[in-house]
Design brief:
The complex is a heterodimer of chains A (441) and B (283). Chain A is built from 18 helices and eleven strands. Chain A is of the alpha/beta class. Chain A has two domains: 185 residues, Periplasmic binding protein-like II (D-Maltodextrin-Binding Protein, domain 2, 3-Layer(aba) Sandwich), CATH 3.40.190.10; 191 residues, Periplasmic binding protein-like II (D-Maltodextrin-Binding Protein, domain 2), CATH 3.40.190.10. Chain A has a five-stranded mixed β-sheet with strand order 2-1-3-11-6, with helices on both faces. In chain A, helix 3 crosses helix 13. The N and C termini of chain A lie far apart (55 Å). Chain B has 283 residues and is mostly helical. Chain B has one domain: MetI-like (MetI-like fold, Orthogonal Bundle), CATH 1.10.3720. Chain B is 75% helix and 3% strand. Chain B is built from twelve helices and two strands; from the N terminus they run H-E-E-H-H-H-H-H-H-H-H-H-H-H. Chain B has a two-stranded antiparallel ribbon. The longest helix of chain B has 32 residues. The radius of gyration of chain B is 23 Å and the shape is globular. Chain B starts with a helix and ends with a helix. Classes of the chains: A alpha/beta (441), B mainly alpha (283). Chain A: It comes from Anoxynatronum buryatiense. Chain A: Belongs to the bacterial solute-binding protein 1 family. Chain A: This is Multiple sugar transport system substrate-binding protein. Chain A: InterPro entries: Bact_solute-bd_prot1 (IPR050490), SBP (IPR006059).
Chain lengths: 441, 283
């Protein structure tokens, strides 16, 4: 009798294990169903050449205002050409995994994908994207800001073209001009000034904090902390590719960052772009570093309590000059797409000056062309455009390494631990550096 | 001829569960970079690295805290609800349906809704806390509360599952048992302790097993509510595996993590399973 029981135990165990594995294999992330691929599969094998029959293209996009703007103009494209454009929006993490799996599994579900620019070296090295040189034999329109086109090439700046810049984000420093005047202060030039101003405003101005940081683990905290890291003279990788995130500059930048946390609203450890943007527009925070696409509504009186009171400037420096971090969203074509030609047509159309202007007017678009930044109608609506163009022209890219996603994730986890008070600054950064070192080949 | 009827199930089982299990075990001995499509045999190196990784043990700790407290509360609350709603009362069916609703919602929706309720400034929970004179809580942004907040969400969603199971088995207990007990002078506590509880035991064991396995796999709530943070305060084993599997695409390493997790769950489940079969065979 006993033997029978035990046999059953083992089967039950295998079953339990298998259930678990099935669950691990496909995490219940909010994976949107891949777009129904059309035209039907049999058509998709053999048509690299002209495809008069293309009825639709599918785009994987980063959810948020950018995807909303993209959807709005896509509808217009459908009207003009009859080609249906399906925009599938998904959160940041989900987007990258969707792109990788789409190409590696040869599914060909997407014809265009939005990519965060630091993914480019990784995607380029892994050969996930279609080379676009043949579609731009006459070169890329010189109207594009050169720093944005550099990102679209692999290797950086010199290689083949694999994408076009869709969203020209560059980090900027936003601050409440009215409060600076009210308390007889001068606009900050370095992070010491920022600290001093933040202290005054937090103390004196009711219901307003000096500074809002974006402390959520992973990409958010890294992109928010890096401007300080650079300003204090930090470098992620040295000449030999050895990580240096625990350098003296890193420690000093983190000390300042911790002080800024205490001069901000409660709960910044969980803040992402949307929360810091809300903190600014609702008058809760006086200063912050943000991507312009998230703060486009700051002058809109319906959404913002501080319309007309916010000034835009380059990110403050410290030991070094300020370095504006570029963070573009690029539009590329997965190698496995069966409709490359149609995808490139849409890509050219959507990055044209007219459409960029339209997307900027809607609110989610950030231009990548000089002519759009100089458009008088847009400058009237977004008075920061001249400053933003200048920042974009002088912007600096994050390290070009295929391991950036991993570095960022590990670094971001330890920065978040330090911010939440789980570990001391030096110890946390040492551990981050050690772990990054182990990840690199 | 019975094999004809068994074949479809067995084939599906082999294809969809046994094969992936062994394939995962096989993959765990390779260093795989899925983005670059490279794979090298490394023996047990993946396992050695995981076991030495402090973050992995932190994830194990978080998972165990999560599993034990969520399952415990779900069992106790679910049983209490079931006993309560087993009585005759007006609108009983309506109330029962309402109790079941959380379980029917998609986990992502549940997590997003709770995320709004947990918001520090605009969240309804902090508002209520202030109304009754307590201070606000940093639900999702403090390392002390974040895991608790996720546990509360899970309890809210899955207590109905236990409720449903227990209610079904309560209704199967013949009323005559209680009648004769009362005739012999048993108090209602004694009725519960010596009739209801023993007869519910198989159901409770099963609910315990199913909830344990399910909470071990929790992922969506962490993914939406905290992203594993702040720091690594809410990183569970599944989240750890996810990071390596789907952010870094180190598929072999992630597979090794999954195998370790399977072994752990099997260890935990073993006791339950043995007990369940014993009860079944005793009948």
């Amino acid at each position: 009798m006993k033997r029978i029981w035990q046999k059953k135990h083992w089967w039950a165990l295998v079953l339990v294990g298998a259930m678990l594995l099935a669950a691990c294999g496909q995490p219940a992330a909010p994976a949107p169903a891949p777009a129904p691929a059309s035209p039907p599969a049999q058509e998709s094998e053999n048509n690299d050449a002209d495809q008069p029959g293309v009825a639709s293209i599918a785009i994987a996009a980063r959810a948020g205002a950018m995807a909303d703007a993209l959807k709005a103009v896509a509808a217009q494209y459908t009207q003009e050409t009859g080609i249906d454009v399906q925009v599938n929006d998904m959160p940041y993490d989900n987007l990258k995994e969707t792109i990788v799996l789409d190409v590696r599994n040869n599914s060909g579900a997407y014809d265009l994908v939005m990519m965060d620019d630091p993914w480019m070296p990784e995607f380029g090295q892994a050969n996930l994207l279609a080379n676009l040189d043949d579609y731009f034999t006459e070169g890329v329109d010189p109207d594009f800001v050169p720093t944005t086109i550099n990102l679209s090439r692999e290797p950086y700046g010199t290689g083949s073209l694999y994408a076009l810049p869709l969203i020209g984000n560059v980090q900027m420093f936003f601050y409440r001009e009215d409060l600076i005047e009210k308390y007889d202060l001068t606009p900050p030039e370095n992070w010491d000034d920022v600290l001093a101003i933040a202290e005054v405003i937090t103390r004196e101005e009711p219901d307003t904090f000096g500074y809002a940081l974006r402390g959520q683990r992973g990409n958010p905290i890294v992109s928010n902390y890096m401007p300080l890291f650079w300003a204090y003279g930090g470098r992620v990788l040295d000449e030999n590719g050895v990580p240096q995130v625990n350098s003296e500059a890193g420690v000093k930048a983190m000390e300042t960052y911790m002080k800024l946390k205490d001069l901000g609203p409660v709960g910044v450890e969980a803040f992402d772009s949307d929360q810091i943007a809300t903190a600014l527009t609702q008058g809760q925070a006086a200063m912050l570093v943000a991507w312009p696409s998230w703060v486009a509504m700051v002058d809109n009186e319906e959404d913002s309590l501080v319309a007309g009171k916010v000034a835009f400037a380059a990110v403050p420096g410290q030991v070094n000059e300020s370095a504006a971090m570029i963070g573009n969203w690029l539009l590329g074509v997965p190698r496995t797409s069966s409709k490359i030609e149609a995808a490139v047509d849409f890509m050219k159309w959507v990055t044209s000056a007219e459409v960029q202007k339209e997307m900027a007017m809607i609110g989610g678009g950030v231009p990548t062309r000089r002519s759009v930044y100089q458009d008088p109608e847009l400058i009237e609506k977004y008075r920061h455009y001249p400053a933003q163009l200048e920042a974009l022209e002088r912007s600096v890219a994050r390290p070009r390494t295929p391991y950036w996603s991993q570095i960022e994730d590990v670094w971001g986890m330890y920065l978040s631990q330090i911010l939440a008070g789980q570990v001391e600054i030096q110890e946390g950064l040492d551990r981050a550096n050690e772990e990054i070192k182990n990840m690199l080949p | 001829m019975t094999w004809i009827f068994l074949t479809p199930t067995v084939v599906l089982f082999l294809l969809l569960t046994v094969y992936p299990l062994f394939y995962a075990a096989y993959t765990s001995f390779f260093r795989v970079d899925y983005i670059l499509d490279q794979s090298t045999f490394v023996g047990i190196q993946n396992y050695q690295r995981i076991i030495r990784d402090m973050n992995f043990w932190n994830a194990v700790k978080n998972t165990l805290i999560f599993v034990v407290s969520a399952v415990l509360f779900e069992l106790v609350l679910g049983t209490a609800f079931a006993i309560f709603f087993n009585k005759e009362m007006k609108y009983r069916k309506l109330f029962r349906t309402i109790v079941l609703i959380p379980m029917l919602l998609p986990p992502i929706t549940v997590a997003l809704t709770w995320k709004m309720m947990y918001a520090y400034d605009q969240g309804v929970l902090n508002y209520l806390l202030e109304v009754i004179g307590l201070g606000r809580i940093e639900w999702l942004s403090s390392t002390t509360w974040a895991l608790t907040a996720i546990i509360i969400t899970d309890i809210w969603q899955w207590t109905p599952f236990v409720f449903l199971m227990v209610l079904a088995s309560l209704q199967a207990i013949p009323e005559s048992l209680y009648q004769s007990a009362r005739v012999s002078g048993a108090t209602s506590w004694q009725c519960f302790r010596y009739i209801t509880l023993p007869l519910l035991k198989p159901t409770l064991t099963l609910a315990l097993l199913l909830r344990t396995i399910d909470t071990f796999r929790v992922f969506d709530k962490m993914y939406v509510l905290t992203g594993g943070g702040p720091g690594n305060a809410t990183e569970t084993i599944t989240f750890y595996i996810y990071r390596y599997g789907f952010r870094y695409f180190h598929t072999g390493y992630a597979a090794a993590g999954s195998i370790i997790m399977v072994i752990m769950v099997c260890g935990v489940s073993f006791l339950y399973i043995r007990r369940a079969f014993r009860t079944a065979n005793a009948k």
